[in-house]
Amino acid sequence: MKIKKRPSMRTLMRHVEAGSDSGYCIRCWTLHHAIEPDAKAYTCSNCGAHAVYGCEELILMQEANEI
Ligand SMILES: [Zn+2]
Protein backbone atom coordinates (compact mmCIF):
# COMPACT_ATOMS: atom_id res chain seq x y z
CA MET A 1 0.00 0.00 0.00
CA LYS A 2 1.33 3.37 -1.04
CA ILE A 3 0.81 6.52 0.98
CA LYS A 4 0.30 9.55 -1.22
CA LYS A 5 0.83 13.20 -0.60
CA ARG A 6 -1.91 14.94 1.35
CA PRO A 7 -3.87 17.40 -0.83
CA SER A 8 -3.71 21.08 0.06
CA MET A 9 -6.79 23.05 1.07
CA ARG A 10 -6.53 24.73 -2.32
CA THR A 11 -6.67 21.40 -4.15
CA LEU A 12 -9.74 20.36 -2.15
CA MET A 13 -11.42 23.68 -2.94
CA ARG A 14 -10.65 23.23 -6.62
CA HIS A 15 -12.37 19.84 -6.63
CA VAL A 16 -15.45 21.30 -4.95
CA GLU A 17 -15.58 24.29 -7.30
CA ALA A 18 -15.27 21.99 -10.31
CA GLY A 19 -18.09 19.80 -8.98
CA SER A 20 -15.87 16.82 -9.69
CA ASP A 21 -17.49 14.49 -7.13
CA SER A 22 -14.18 13.31 -5.81
CA GLY A 23 -12.84 12.53 -2.41
CA TYR A 24 -9.74 11.33 -0.61
CA CYS A 25 -8.87 8.57 1.78
CA ILE A 26 -7.47 10.18 4.94
CA ARG A 27 -5.31 7.12 5.62
CA CYS A 28 -3.38 6.86 2.36
CA TRP A 29 -4.62 10.01 0.56
CA THR A 30 -5.66 8.17 -2.59
CA LEU A 31 -7.96 10.21 -4.79
CA HIS A 32 -11.32 8.56 -5.40
CA HIS A 33 -13.89 9.46 -8.03
CA ALA A 34 -17.69 9.31 -7.92
CA ILE A 35 -17.67 10.28 -4.24
CA GLU A 36 -20.38 12.70 -3.13
CA PRO A 37 -18.97 15.94 -1.63
CA ASP A 38 -20.49 15.07 1.77
CA ALA A 39 -19.50 11.38 1.76
CA LYS A 40 -18.15 10.02 5.03
CA ALA A 41 -16.13 6.94 5.88
CA TYR A 42 -16.43 5.15 2.55
CA THR A 43 -14.20 2.13 1.98
CA CYS A 44 -10.86 2.84 0.33
CA SER A 45 -9.97 0.51 -2.52
CA ASN A 46 -6.26 1.13 -1.95
CA CYS A 47 -5.82 0.56 1.80
CA GLY A 48 -9.16 -0.97 2.78
CA ALA A 49 -9.86 1.58 5.53
CA HIS A 50 -13.28 3.16 5.93
CA ALA A 51 -11.63 6.51 5.51
CA VAL A 52 -12.78 8.02 2.22
CA TYR A 53 -14.41 11.43 2.58
CA GLY A 54 -15.81 13.83 0.00
CA CYS A 55 -13.81 17.00 -0.65
CA GLU A 56 -16.42 19.29 0.93
CA GLU A 57 -16.35 17.15 4.05
CA LEU A 58 -12.55 17.19 4.08
CA ILE A 59 -12.50 20.98 3.99
CA LEU A 60 -14.82 21.11 7.02
CA MET A 61 -12.69 18.55 8.85
CA GLN A 62 -9.52 20.42 8.03
CA GLU A 63 -11.02 23.70 9.24
CA ALA A 64 -12.01 22.00 12.48
CA ASN A 65 -8.50 20.52 12.76
CA GLU A 66 -9.91 17.01 12.83
CA ILE A 67 -7.43 15.75 10.25
ZN1 LIG B 1 -6.83 4.49 1.71
Indicate the mean pLDDT.
95
Main sheet summary: 4 strands, antiparallel
Q: What is Rg?
A: 11 Å
Q: Helix coverage percent of residues? A: 25-40%
Count of helical stretches: 2
| Fraction of residues in β-strands | 15-25%
Please tell me the total number of domains. Answer: 1
> Which secondary-structure class do the elements indicate?
alpha+beta
Which molecules are bound in this entry?
zinc ion
Fold and architecture overview:
It contains 2 helices and 4 strands; from the N terminus they run αββββα. The chain has 67 residues and is α+β, with helices and mostly antiparallel strands. It has one domain. The protein has a 4-stranded antiparallel β-sheet. Helix 1 runs antiparallel to helix 2. The protein is globular, with a radius of gyration of 11 Å. Bound molecules: zinc ion (ZN).
Short description:
With 67 residues, the protein is an alpha+beta fold.
Structure characteristics:
single chain; 67 residues; alpha+beta; four-stranded antiparallel beta sheet; 2 helices; binds zinc ion
Layout of secondary structure:
Elements: H1 9-18, E1 22-25, E2 31-33, E3 42-43, E4 50-54, H2 55-63
Antiparallel strand pairs: 1-2, 1-4, 3-4
Bound molecules: zinc ion.
The site of zinc ion (ZN) has 9 residues, from loops.
